[in-house]
Q: What sequence folds into this?
């Protein structure tokens, strides 16, 4: 089976111009969990001045009903954010480092190697406090400032994170530039480097390659895929980044290999669009809308 990590409550919302209320964020998380999603990024503990969409991270987690059968992830960029996350009931910390210096400076105010060392420190802190922790390598396939990224640099970072105790290593196509062949090659390289740790892949659909890249990643050994309901998302610090690959599209593409209710995710996508005042739709949303319209015309 392939695990789907729902990232709409974090990555999906952090670049949307409409800031959802705490109640709506909790409702989104509960809808995803009701659809069978077992693991979710529910918030990020970042500077609220820079990312106001995440200003209520603590309030969101406090408002969530306890679910021992679900894993709720808090994303953190530094030790300050990690301390904030550890003061809540969040189940798992997700550290982030960058494969390039330029993106590291834009996203975290420090060069690549410093973000890697900070991630290692976050992993150590989480373990010391008895929490799960993993790490993501941002701009693993391409950087908006430096362009192409050397795969061997990504592999070296992955090895460092694995040695530091990450329970999983993720590689992110932060700006959506990767092609299926590139996803397949890098996923296989990282999987071999960190085995037996699982590899997670985080994909954006900037150029319409999201679902094809999901299938390439899975075929190359990825065991977990990030996705966002309705294809929401983007990165405030990555010019040109479009939304994440849509959860409902991933569920449809993987079929029985992912244990989620795709129709429930699709319902949640329409609900989220309404809350965000958003007109963008994923391909499956467009397909359902046309089907409903056609049925109405025939009736």
A:
């Amino acid at each position: 089976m392939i695990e789907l990590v729902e990232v709409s409550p974090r990555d999906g919302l952090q670049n949307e111009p409409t800031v959802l209320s705490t109640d709506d964020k909790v409702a989104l998380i509960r809808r995803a969990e009701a659809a069978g999603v077992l693991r979710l990024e529910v918030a990020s503990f970042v500077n609220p001045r820079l990312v106001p969409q995440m200003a209520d991270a603590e309030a969101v987690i406090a408002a969530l009903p306890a679910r021992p059968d679900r894993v709720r992830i808090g994303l953190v960029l530094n030790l300050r954010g990690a301390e904030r996350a550890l003061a809540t009931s969040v189940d798992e910390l997700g550290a982030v480092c960058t494969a390039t210096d330029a993106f590291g400076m834009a996203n975290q105010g420090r060069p690549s190697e410093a973000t890697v060392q900070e991630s290692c420190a976050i992993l150590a802190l989480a373990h010391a406090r008895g929490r799960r922790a993993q790490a993501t390598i941002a701009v693993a396939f391409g950087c908006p400032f430096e362009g192409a990224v050397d795969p061997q640099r990504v592999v070296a970072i992955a090895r460092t994170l694995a040695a530091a105790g990450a329970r999983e290593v993720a590689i992110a196509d932060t700006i959506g530039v990767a092609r299926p062949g590139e996803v397949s090659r890098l996923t296989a390289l990282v999987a071999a480097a960190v085995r037996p740790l699982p590899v997670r892949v985080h994909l954006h659909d900037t150029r319409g390659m999201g679902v094809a890249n999901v299938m390439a990643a899975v075929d190359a050994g990825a065991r977990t895929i990030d996705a966002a309901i309705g294809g929401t998302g983007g990165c405030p610090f990555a010019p040109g980044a479009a939304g994440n690959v849509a959860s409902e599209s991933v569920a449809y593409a993987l079929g029985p290999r992912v244990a989620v209710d795709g129709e429930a995710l699709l319902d949640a996508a329409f609900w989220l669009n309404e809350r965000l005042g958003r007109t963008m739709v994923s391909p499956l949303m467009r397909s359902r809308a046309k089907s409903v319209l056609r049925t109405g015309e025939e009736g």
